[in-house]
Write a structure and sequence with these properties.
- With 245 residues, the protein is α/β, with parallel strands linked by helices.
- It has a domain of 151 residues: 3-Layer(aba) Sandwich (Rossmann fold), CATH 3.40.50.
- The strands form two sheets. A six-stranded parallel sheet has the order 3-2-1-7-8-9, with helices on both faces.
- Helix 6 links the parallel strand 2 and strand 3.
- The two termini are 17 Å apart.
- 42% of the residues are buried.
- Bound molecules: adenosine-5-diphosphoribose.
- Adenosine-5-diphosphoribose (APR) binds next to loops.
Length: 245
C-alpha cells in the first residue's frame, strides 16, 4: 500500500495535505473526538462565540488551561516533519490544516492554510487589532486590548464564527486544482472543513488517507487507506518516497 501511495504522489501534478487533530496526538495534544477526546471531558460550549461574548472570563479560563498551558509546549512529531520534507523535495504543494497548534509552522512547512485560524495571536473583539499571545501574556484574564480596552480572544474560530480569509478561499481553491489529497488524522465530521476532501474528489483528485480508524471519508472517497498512527505512517510514506525519488 505504501508503494502504491508513493506511485500516486510521484504521478500527481499538485499535491495537498489536509490535516486534523490526529496528526498532533503523538505530539501530546489530545484529539477532540474518539479515545481520550477533549469533548469527552469538556463541554464545547465554552468555545461557542455567543458564550464567549457573554462570559469572557469563564471561557478564557478553559481556553488558557487547554490551549495554552497544556498544548503550548507541544513540539512537532515525525508526521509534521515528514510533510515539511515532502514540501522541500517538491512533492507537496500546500497543507490545509484544521489545527490551531502551530506545529506545521514549527516543523518547517511553508505553504499552510489555517482553516480554523491559529492560537499564536490574540485579536480584539472590537477594533480587530492582533497581538502575539507571547506579547500579552495570560496572567490577567480576560486579556484586554492595549488599543481600545476591549476583550481579546484567540485568533482561532469559535463555533458560530466564519472561516477566516484568505485560508478559506485558498483551501477551496486547492480542492479545485489538486490532483492528490493526503488526509491525515481527521474524522471528516466538522463542516465546512470536512467538505473540502469531498470537493477535491469530485474534481478528480485521488485520496490517500492516514488514520488509526476509519473516518467519514474512508469508505466513500479514499483510494488508499494507510491505517496506523500518523507519525509512523507518514514517516514511512515519506521515507519510501524520498529514498526512491
Ligand atoms: N494517528 C492518526 N490518526 C489519529 C491518531 C493518531 N495517532 N489519533 C487519533 N487519530 C484520528 C482519529 O481516528 C480521528 O479520525 O484523528 C481524528 C481526530 O478526530 P477529531 O478530534 O474530530 O479531529 P478533527 O477531525 O481534526 O476535528 C475537526 O473539530 O472541534 C473541531 O475545530 C475543531 O479542528 C477541529 C475540528
Amino acid at each position: 500500500m505504501i508503494q502504491k501511495a508513493v506511485d500516486l504522489i510521484k504521478n500527481a501534478g499538485r499535491v495537498t495535505a489536509f490535516t486534523g487533530a490526529g496528526i498532533s496526538v503523538e505530539s501530546g495534544i489530545p484529539p477532540f473526538r474518539g479515545e481520550n477526546g477533549l469533548w469527552n471531558k469538556y463541554d464545547p460550549t465554552f468555545l461557542n462565540i455567543n458564550y464567549f461574548h457573554s462570559n469572557p472570563l469563564g471561557s478564557w479560563k478553559l481556553i488558557k488551561e487547554i490551549f495554552y498551558d497544556f498544548f503550548g509546549e507541544a513540539t512537532p512529531n515525525k508526521a509534521h516533519y515528514g510533510l515539511a520534507e515532502m514540501e522541500k523535495a517538491g512533492y507537496l504543494d500546500a497543507i490545509i490544516t484544521q489545527n490551531i497548534d502551530n506545529l506545521h509552522q514549527k516543523s518547517g512547512s511553508r505553504e499552510i492554510f489555517e482553516f480554523h485560524g491559529n492560537s499564536r495571536n490574540l485579536i480584539c473583539v472590537d477594533c480587530g487589532k492582533k497581538y502575539p499571545v507571547a506579547e500579552i501574556g495570560l496572567d490577567n484574564l480576560p486579556p484586554e486590548c492595549m488599543n481600545c480596552g476591549a476583550v481579546l480572544k484567540p485568533d482561532f474560530i469559535f463555533f458560530g464564527e466564519a472561516i477566516p480569509e484568505p485560508a478559506r478561499t485558498n483551501s477551496f481553491r486547492e480542492a479545485e486544482i489538486s490532483d492528490l489529497f493526503i488526509l491525515i488524522g481527521t474524522t471528516g465530521e466538522v463542516m465546512p472543513a470536512s467538505s473540502i476532501p469531498f470537493l477535491a474528489k469530485e474534481n478528480g483528485a485521488k485520496i490517500i488517507e492516514i488514520n488509526i480508524n476509519k473516518s467519514s471519508y474512508t469508505e466513500r472517497i479514499t483510494d488508499i487507506f494507510l491505517q496506523g498512527k500518523a507519525a509512523e505512517m507518514t514517516f514511512s510514506l515519506v521515507k519510501e518516497l524520498l529514498e526512491h525519488s
